[in-house]
Design brief:
CATH architecture of chain B: Orthogonal Bundle
CATH topology of chain B: ABC transporter involved in vitamin B12 uptake, BtuC
Oligomer: heterodimer
Largest interface: A-B, 30 and 31 residues
GO molecular function, one term (chain B): transmembrane transporter activity
Largest sheet of chain B: 2 strands, antiparallel
Shape of chain A: elongated
Number of helices of chain B: 14
Number of strands of chain A: 12
Strand order of the largest sheet of chain B: 1-2
Protein name (chain B): Xylose transport system permease protein XylH
Largest sheet of chain A: 6 strands, parallel
Membrane topology (chain B): Multi-pass membrane protein
Organism (chain B): Thermomonospora umbrina
Distance between the termini of chain A: 30 Å
Subcellular location (chain B): Cell membrane
Chain lengths: 327, 333
């Protein structure tokens, strides 16, 4: 709140300097119009409700992006999350109850959120979706969507697996019930061309992920490609491959500080990054732009934030940003 | 009110919980300025009812001296069965609803029979069925739909009618109250009548408190326990139907972990883990406390990273208050 007073004071001084003492001047009105949103009027309150489980590395980056945009736009950001569809819907309801100025949601479970999002729209609260649900977003009443098309990203991953010479692959699904993850595996299977199996693991318990994958590699020694769907799981896959004495190449979705060094030293062959920081950032910024200047981004179509493929060739460029935890 | 009546009232299992609920309500009203809005309160009530419907039957089962750890995933099973039957066979959704009721009651029957026939603790038996159901939920769904969620049944015959029954939003004045709140109150009233006004109620208390003595005086302990497991199955079916008709498609991985929330609601409401003591009204207040805490933290805008910490702290506080009150009034337990 302190900062706001500072800003408001700054703006007031600016206005005095610019406007001088003229009672009514065209120039002054023009200047005021140019000062869109900065410290003028009450702060915007934007609620962001994701389907993240507690302590999820990926969602932490999305949240950081949203917080960065909120800080820049002087927006109060209310973040909450629940992996259970019904619970997430209730959290959206609480945001509507609080009459926030905008809502950012993830449509991992679009049917569960359908009605509450309609309630938000009916209450004239603009909704923007991020990350999952590109296909449903506009139909459910969101004004914009920022994310990657999971099937398109999966296809990119399938091609990369092919490129590193894999002939038989496993797709490691770490969150049961997420349509987006299923889409990635389906897309990868489509372009990979060889046999690809899905392996379900309990993503919230890393030792369990590791032992399941190790067991799979031990049981089926012909597997020479492993595709994980999140950066932390790639590191675990490296351990599993070592443990099972397998020579499988590893590719993954998403990005992290550790993953970059694994890509640099060749332990992981590639990463398909959807730039989560960008998703959070753009979502908050889009709502802010809609409020202060009536802008809509994307023309009613999903705005793609990925796939951005990172391999050994371009890892050095990405490394400093990943080290900061923003890529 | 005579002295003995007030003492009897003070000895009721739910008194501590009631004080806890009032304290929490006042607390959240003070720290969260949006908490007292009609819309917010209806959201809180909705959250409470979704846990409360299950907490009622779970409380009865606990009074009867048993646990059901499969209650959380059984809700998902019920919803999956109804959605799958209706969609795959292109039938009216009510057929799915009926088949789902038969399947969940059968699961409750199996839980009950396994417990009374083997004599194993229900904790072990239902832990096993919990895992089996969680696996079957995913395995069967994947096998049939090729995905991890059921197909949406929103546009099928009977959906609108079923939605009106299980998931309607009722407009009371200018406030939306979900129909689950009404059903919750109905179930609480029915369970309270069963416990306090019928012979079966006496059997539940006796079978949970002192099974050997109860058996000796001719109480059908085994039959009562099986019926209680089927009661949990019935509310699981009902909750599953709400999930299905409120959200149209069901994710196969959901429901895991909720069984503990049902148990904690019952415990906050004064049920003992050892059986033979508790009340349905208490469980309802427990669910209200849980719902208030669960959503109050959101309205208070506390950092969600700490959400579970605060939830745990609140629950601990509520149960300690509960215990202190019971000791003070000398309920003797």
């Amino acid at each position: 709140m302190k900062r706001r007073h500072g800003l408001a004071g700054g703006v007031a001084v600016m206005a005095l300097l610019l406007g001088g003492c003229s009672g009514s001047g065209g120039k002054r009105a023009e200047d005021e119009a140019a000062d869109v949103g900065v410290g003028s009027g009450p702060r915007l309150r934007i609620a962001m409700i994701t389907h993240s489980g507690p302590g999820d590395a990926f969602w932490d980056i999305v949240r950081k992006g949203a917080e960065a945009a909120a800080a820049k736009d002087d927006v109060e950001l209310l973040y909450s999350a629940d992996p259970d569809g019904g619970e997430q819907a209730q959290l959206v309801r609480t945001a509507v109850d609080q009459r926030v100025d905008g809502v950012v949601v993830t449509f991992a479970k679009p049917d569960a959120l359908r009605d509450v999002v309609r309630q938000a729209v009916a209450a004239r609260i603009p909704v923007v979706s991020v990350n999952s649900g590109a296909a449903e977003s506009a139909r459910l009443g969101a004004v914009a969507h920022f994310g990657q098309d999971e099937v398109v990203a999966g296809e990119a991953a399938g091609r990369e697996l092919r490129r590193i010479g894999a002939r038989r692959a496993v797709c490691v699904v770490h969150e049961q019930g997420n349509v987006g993850l299923e889409g990635r595996c389906a897309g990868a299977a489509r372009t990979f061309g060889g046999p690809m199996e899905n392996l379900y693991v309990q993503g919230t318990t890393m030792p369990q992920v590791r032992s399941s994958l190790t067991a799979k590699l031990q049981a089926d020694s012909a597997v020479d490609g492993v595709l994980t769907l999140g950066a932390p799981f790639a590191a675990t896959a490296v351990q599993s491959v070592k443990e099972a004495g397998s020579s499988a190449g590893i590719g993954t979705f998403d990005m992290s500080r550790d993953l970059i060094s694994s890509i640099r030293d060749g332990a992981v062959a590639f990463a398909v990054d959807q730039q989560p920081w960008l998703q959070g950032y753009l979502a908050v910024d889009a709502l802010w732009l809609l409020k202060v200047n009536g802008n809509v981004i994307g023309g009613g179509r999903p705005v793609l934030t990925g796939p951005a493929v990172v391999t050994r060739a371009n890892a050095d460029t990405v490394a400093p940003f990943a080290a900061r935890g923003t890529r | 009110m005579s002295g003995s009546t007030s003492r009897r009232w003070a000895g009721r299992p739910e008194v501590g919980a009631l004080l806890g609920a009032v304290a929490l309500f006042v607390f959240f009203s003070l720290v969260a300025d949006t908490f007292l809005r009609a819309g917010s309160l209806s959201t809180v009530l909705y959250a409470a009812s979704t846990f409360g419907i299950m907490a009622v039957s779970v409380a009865l089962l606990m009074i009867g001296g048993e646990f059901d750890l499969s209650a959380g995933v059984m809700v998902t099973t019920g919803a999956l069965v109804a959605a799958t039957v209706a969609y795959q066979l292109s039938l009216n959704v009510w057929v799915g609803v009926a088949v789902s009721l038969v399947v969940t009651l059968a699961l409750g029957l199996v839980n009950g029979l396994l417990c009374v026939r083997t004599g194993l603790p229900s904790f072990i038996v239902t832990l096993a069925t919990f895992f089996m159901l969680a696996g079957a939920n995913l395995g069967v769904t994947k096998m049939i739909t090729g995905g991890v969620a059921t197909d949406s049944i929103r546009d099928m015959d009977g959906f609108a009618a079923a939605r009106a029954v299980f998931a309607a939003d009722l407009d009371v004045g200018d406030v939306r109250v979900n129909v689950t709140v009404v059903w919750w109150l109905v179930f609480v009233a029915a369970a309270t009548w069963l416990l306090l006004r019928t012979r079966a109620g006496n059997w539940i208390f006796a079978g949970g408190g002192a099974p050997e003595a109860a058996r000796a005086v001719g109480v059908p302990v085994a039959r009562t326990k099986v019926a209680l497991f089927m009661g949990v199955a019935f509310t699981a079916w009902f909750s599953g139907m709400h999930l299905l008709f409120a959200y149209a498609s069901v994710q196969s991985g959901e429901g895991v972990g909720n069984e503990f929330f049902y148990i904690i609601c019952a415990v906050i409401g004064g049920c003992l883990l050892t059986g033979g003591y508790g009340s349905a009204i208490g469980a309802a207040i427990g669910a209200l406390i849980f719902g208030m805490t669960n959503k109050g933290i959101v309205y208070a805008q506390w950092d969600p990273d700490w959400f579970k910490f605060w939830l745990g702290a609140m629950l601990l506080l509520a149960t300690v208050v509960n215990l202190a009150v019971r000791r003070r009034v000398g309920a003797g337990r």
